[in-house]
Amino acid sequence: MTVHDGEIAIGEPLVRELLGEQCPQWAGLPLRQAGAGTENVMFRLGDGLLVRLPRTTDRSGALRKEVRWLPRLAARLSSRIPAVSYVGTPTASYPADWAVFGWIDGAEAGPSTVGDWAVFGADLAGFVRELHTVPLDGAERGGDLSWYRGGHLAPCDEWVGRALAECRPLIGGSQVDALARVWRAGLALPESGARHVWLHGDLKPTNLLVTGRRLGAVIDFGALSVGLPDAEHATVWDLPGAAREAYRSGLGLDEVTWMRARAWAVAVAVSGIAYYWATFPEFVAECRARVAFILES
């Protein structure tokens, strides 16, 4: 499945070639595809490793960012996060950086894996609280650590407006009108005066691994950035109401912050629907589920 322009063809033969050239100690291990997201294609290597390969060369920056910062974050977080085992270099066959991480057991967060959504929401709030209090250690909002979700809402109004318009024939005018009202309500609020913090940037259910019916690990830090905390809370609208309320309570989020976060949830949902409608139906389904939760809350 091709998702982006300029995408690199990634399959098992390519991964075998890379391993043989750069990681011969692992070249004979069993290899099987373990999923594909919007940014990376993943292969499980043996029992304990995961190979991640960016879909395009311009997405290598996110991987390099993880390699640099994840070890520093891991030492200060209670929840398990990915550990880097090897950093691969570009080749003639694959002109992008790639990496091998430790495999983390767990299932994606969902109705069949989470035992109690309120407990799960509290667990997620605990992770976010820890992450947002990790010292920046000189990291600043800039370069790979600057992402739109860590800024203010107003600069995003133009592209969110385009995405809303593109969604109108896809999901219906009444839903789009309701989402536009949520977005405009967020724009009308005063800008956040919060300090910059570390942001995971994409805490959706596919990046939250469940063990023992509770949050066990957080993965995929490709959207790691430094910025305002409001947008971090946007993906909580991917979760049922009990999880959202426990999350909000656990972090003590006030009404204005919550409204900004809900506006960010609209931005992320409509942009995902508009961009991936014809190429990534699974991701569109995630965004549409988020829309449903936004409109019922």
UniProtKB/TrEMBL annotation:
<feature type="domain" description="Aminoglycoside phosphotransferase">
    <location>
        <begin position="31"/>
        <end position="262"/>
    </location>
</feature>
<dbReference type="InterPro" id="IPR011009">
    <property type="entry name" value="Kinase-like_dom_sf"/>
</dbReference>
<keyword id="KW-0418">Kinase</keyword>
<dbReference type="InterPro" id="IPR051678">
    <property type="entry name" value="AGP_Transferase"/>
</dbReference>
<dbReference type="Pfam" id="PF01636">
    <property type="entry name" value="APH"/>
</dbReference>
<dbReference type="InterPro" id="IPR002575">
    <property type="entry name" value="Aminoglycoside_PTrfase"/>
</dbReference>
<protein>
    <submittedName>
        <fullName>Predicted kinase, aminoglycoside phosphotransferase (APT) family</fullName>
    </submittedName>
</protein>
<keyword id="KW-0808">Transferase</keyword>
<dbReference type="GO" id="GO:0016301">
    <property type="term" value="F:kinase activity"/>
</dbReference>
